[in-house]
Specification:
By secondary structure, the protein is mostly beta strands. The protein has helices spanning 3-7, 11-25, 38-41, and strands at 51-56, 64-70, 79-84, 89-93, 108-112, 119-122, 131-134, 138-141, 155-158, 168-170, 179-182, 186-189, 202-205, 212-218, 227-232, 237-241, 253-258, 263-269, 278-283, 288-294, 303-309, 323-329, 339-344, 350-354, 364-368, 384-386, 395-400, 406-411.
Length: 416
């Protein structure tokens, strides 16, 4: 402090001045790191009975961003193949078994590749083993159970190196061999011979898609062949119409299912027990979900739309709480009626259910499922279903990118 200034101040003002300077010059405490907070809440039971367990944390923000559940090693337990967007690698984590299921899954193999936001799985060489597709263009052929844990034995085939979201394996042309749909825009036909050689895979155009969040192979019009349903975040929800066997190599015609953008993920399933599949779309901007109740099984969809706002309280304190991942599943233990499960970007997961007439919007309600540590789960993804712990009920797996949790699963407490 300048000496001449201090001499003109009263003693009390001088003291306050010194204190002010000391406070202003003191080092600013750094914000607490979020990455370690998962350790505080991992496995803790909430009032709902649900808990969040960690497969592997993500301390370096490698960005896990895709889940593929399958019993890869054939031991009866579900394993998980995960792609890491920023880390540019994928890992196959092996389920440790019931006795250690809530522990970290330490047994895994790793594959290096480029940046990868999406992945898929399916048998692409017709040998009976499930193969892995990272980012649409990188196919890893499964060597079989004997050599499964040796990454060097997996054969990598590169169809292309650019990003193509939501890779899906399906027999598009009905020849008995699985093909590969990429980016909801094109499909690659599995060759009869030379299946591990990229030059033998011929591509065909489906149509245009801007930012596909989901790509479902689904018989939309119930005419006996599979159409392709796409949830496009930047445009609308639409479907490519299968023109029938022998015509699938031409560009497919496109029809609108729901003409609203800003949708995140989508699920297909019977949500009101009428034995007709419905559609549920999460909406970021509206912070709500759009439940599209289908009123007839056959023909082009006729829909009754219910818009349900997300819960207003008990959200878990998430900084960016809006509906993101979605699934249709039994949550309350009543197999006769399923609920809608929502994984928000951040905060507590929640469910949507109804009582009475499902076509009346006022009969629907949103119920938070309180699980410790909601605010620390900062960027979750879609909901992937499976009996992770082998106890007979369905659990939920997802990824968390920015809070350090990494690959997580929400343990279903079962019917109380």
């Amino acid at each position: 402090m300048n000496r001449n200034i201090t001499q003109t101040l009263s003693p009390l003002a001088w003291v306050f001045g010194v204190l002010l300077i000391l406070v202003m010059s003191a080092p600013t405490p750094s914000a607490p790191k979020v990455g370690g907070n998962w350790k505080t809440y991992c496995g803790k039971v909430g009032p709902s009975g649900w808990r969040c367990n960690v497969v592997q944390p993500d301390p370096k923000d490698a960005g896990p961003d895709g889940i593929n559940l399958h019993d890869w090693d054939g031991d009866g337990d579900l394993d998980v193949f995960v792609n890491y967007e920023e880390g540019a690698y994928s890992r196959l984590y092996f389920n440790p078994g019931k006795g250690k299921i809530r522990d970290l899954w330490a047994d895994y193999i790793e594959f290096k590749h480029g940046k990868c936001e999406d992945s898929g799985m399916g048998d692409l060489d017709n040998d009976g083993d499930i193969d892995y597709i990272a980012n649409g263009g990188w196919v890893y052929f499964n060597p079989g159970k004997t050599d499964l844990r040796d990454p060097a034995k997996w054969t990598k085939m590169t169809l292309f190196n650019n990003e193509a979201r939501v890779p899906v394996v399906s027999d598009v042309d009905g020849d008995g061999l699985n093909d590969l749909i990429v980016g909801a825009r094109a499909w690659y036909k599995q060759p009869v011979k030379g299946k591990h050689d990229a030059k033998n895979w011929k591509s065909y155009t489906l149509g245009k898609a801007l930012w596909p969040m989901n790509c479902f192979v689904y018989d939309m019009d119930a005419d006996g062949d599979d159409d392709i349903v796409v949830q496009d975040r930047r445009k609308e929800t639409f479907w490519f119409v299968n023109a029938g066997k022998g015509k699938v190599t031409a560009q497919w015609s496109r029809k609108t299912l729901y003409a609203k953008k800003d949708g995140m993920f989508m699920a297909i399933g019977d949500v009101n027990g009428d034995k007709i599949d419905d559609f549920v779309i999460t909406n970021q901007r509206g912070r709500n979900i759009h439940i599209l109740l289908r009123t007839a099984k056959r023909g082009e969809p006729v829909l009754k739309t219910i818009v349900l706002a997300q819960p207003a309280d008990k959200t878990g304190g998430g900084g960016d709480f809006f509906p993101k991942g979605v699934a249709v599943m039994d949550i309350d233990g009543d197999p006769g009626k399923k609920e809608i499960l929502i994984v928000p970007k951040s905060g507590n997961i929640w469910s949507a259910s109804y009582s009475g007439d499902s076509t009346d919007a006022k009969n629907w309600k949103a119920t938070p499922i309180e699980i410790p540590g909601g605010a620390t789960r900062r960027k979750m993804d879609n909901a992937f279903l499976g009996d992770i712990d082998g106890d007979g009920d369905i659990d939920i797996m997802t990824t968390e990118e920015n809070g350090g949790w990494g690959v997580v699963w929400f343990e279903n407490p079962g019917k109380k």
